[in-house]
Known about the structure:
Layout: H1 2-28, H2 32-44, H3 53-69, E1 72-81, E2 88-98, E3 105-111, H4 132-151, E4 157-163, H5 179-186, E5 195-200, E6 209-211, H6 213-218, H7 220-232, E7 238-242, H8 251-254, E8 259-264, H9 288-303
Parallel strand pairs: 3-4, 3-5, 5-8, 6-7
Antiparallel strand pairs: 1-2, 2-4
Amino acid sequence: xxxxxxxxxxxxxxxxxxxxxxxxxxxxxxxxxxxxxxxxxxxxxxxxxxxxxxxxxxxxxxxxxxxxxxxxxxxxxxxxxxxxxxxxxxxxxxxxxxxxxxxxxxxxxxxxxxxxxxxxxxxxxxxxxxxxxxxxxxxxxxxxxxxxxxxxxxxxxxxxxxxxxxxxxxxxxxxxxxxxxxxxxxxxxxxxxxxxxxxxxxxxxxxxxxxxxxxxxxxxxxxxxxxxxxxxxxxxxxxxxxxxxxxxxxxxxxxxxxxxxxxxxxxxxxxxxxxxxxxxxxxxxxxxxxxxxxxxxxxxxxxxx
Length: 305
Ligand SMILES: [Zn+2]
């Protein structure tokens, strides 16, 4: 009897959730399959490592897509000495702006570079990775959000910033990570944004997103709003508890007192197995459902402002 009773409540809950999410899906239009295509197209270029032809191809691809959906597209180029060789790194943040004069506004960020080494891998650790989840997933969501915002503009301004050089650093050398987000935080295009959301490792088919602790410390109310929307939409991949603190592209913005948060599933795919910084980080480990859960949640928050 108890079991039946519980399952009836459970089913009613499920029905309510599915009706509600269909309604909201239709409102934002975010399409996980389109986002998945964007993820695969980035991976088709190969590893997007600074100073390589694949990186140049990826920049042209982002520029073309963002030109179709944004009011302004800016390639923010900057050079930096490579700490590990004699070469100069030619880095590029790709910025797509919607309603460039509008305030308040939000920065949506994700890194587009992929790691130049597979240091968590036993096989070929010196070779660059494809970075389907660690890199392409966050960018894929931003490209689809841009397409939706072009079709149905938001009331707030939006800056989509694709960061270069997030994953350049060697393990433990934290100064050589986050190259693009540090540069952007120091050279942000005005008017200043109120909020920053960074997406990283959000395509894992086995998605589980606890609250990232630096984000919660910096902007607890903003975190609460995002996680509450996810719950409302039935996206239980968002977990209402704290996870591991992550040194990611939101940190340069946290340091400049933005309401900056990182949406990240750092256990890829789970606590027992690891594809992160290995050659296993490929599109087949990602899913359109995961991209849609994150994209629809973020876009719903934007439309509610
Ligand atoms: Zn990484």
